[in-house]
Amino acid sequence: MKNHLKLVLLIFSFVPFTFLTAQEYFFGVKGGVNYNSIGDLYHYGEETGVGGNLTPDESTLFSAEKEMGSQFGAFAVIDFERFYIRPEINFISIKNKYPLALNTTEWTSSKVDIPILIGTRINDLFSIYGGPVYSSISDTKLEGLKQLDGTDETPLEFDKSSVGISAGFMVEYGRFGLDFRYDYGLTSVKKQDRIKLIRATYGTFVADLNEYNASTISINLNIKLFGFNNPNASVERKKSRFFDWRNHKNLR
C-alpha cells in the first residue's frame, strides 16, 4: 500500500511542471453512472453452531449484485502535441446488494477519487487513456448490521484510503465528451469475520464478508467549460476539422 501511494504522489509531483511545456489547457466538469463489484457474503448455517432459525439452514455463499451508483467531478486537460495529461477529482457513490434468503441487504460506499490519466488521441474523435487513482473513502455501510442484543448498529471496518488503476476510451465532439472507464483496486479490501445481521429480517445471523479487490465500470459525460493556449508552446496543434474547440473563444 505504501509503495502504491508513493508512486501516485511521485506522478502527482510532475503535474505542475507539465503546465510549462504544454500547448493548451482545458478545464471542465463531468458526471455519470457506475456499476461496482465487491466480494461475496458467507452465510453461516446451523451446523456451524451459531444458533437456530437460520434461513437457509446450511452454510451458503451469496454473491453481491450490482446497483447503479453515480459520480460527479471536475477535470483539467494538459494538452501536448501527441498526448495529454488529465488530472481529475471525482465524488463517487457506489451501491451493491446481497439478496439473502428472506430479504435483500443494501451495501453502500462513498469516496473521493483523484486520478492522474495519460491519454493519446487516435483521431479527431477518439482517444484512449490510463493511469493511477488515489481514493479517499469516507463511508461504507451494510444495511441491517446489529450487535448481539439487537440494539446498536455495528459499523463496517474499512481502510480510509486505497490505490487503483484506471483505463478507458473517450469520444469527443466539440466541447462535449463521453468516456467509458474501468477502475481496478490495487488495494485489497480485507475480509471481515463474523459480522451480525438481524436474523428475523434477513435469515442470516452471522456472516463473513470475503476479501476482494474492488472494480468499477463507469460512463461519464464531460463538458469543457473553458481553455486557453500556452503562448510559450513551440508547436501548434492541428485544429479539429469538426469544431475549433481548442480556441477558448468557442468555449464561452
Question: How would you characterize the overall build of this protein?
Answer:
This protein has one domain: Beta Barrel (Porin). By secondary structure, it is mostly beta strands. About 30% of the residues are buried. It has an eight-stranded antiparallel barrel with strand order 1-4-5-6-7-8-9-12. It has a four-stranded antiparallel beta sheet with strand order 3-2-11-10, with no helix packed on it.
The value of Rg in angstroms is 23 Å
Distance between the termini: 43 Å
Count of alpha/pi helices: 2
- The low-pLDDT segments are 235-250
Share of helical residues: under 10%
CATH architecture grouping: Beta Barrel
CATH topology: Porin
Structural class: mainly beta
Which secondary structure elements does this structure contain, and how are they paired or packed?
Elements: H1 2-21, E1 24-37, E2 41-43, E3 60-62, E4 65-79, E5 84-99, E6 104-121, E7 126-142, E8 161-173, E9 176-185, E10 192-196, H2 199-202, E11 206-209, E12 215-229
Antiparallel strand pairs: 1-4, 1-12, 2-3, 2-11, 4-5, 5-6, 6-7, 7-8, 8-9, 9-12, 10-11
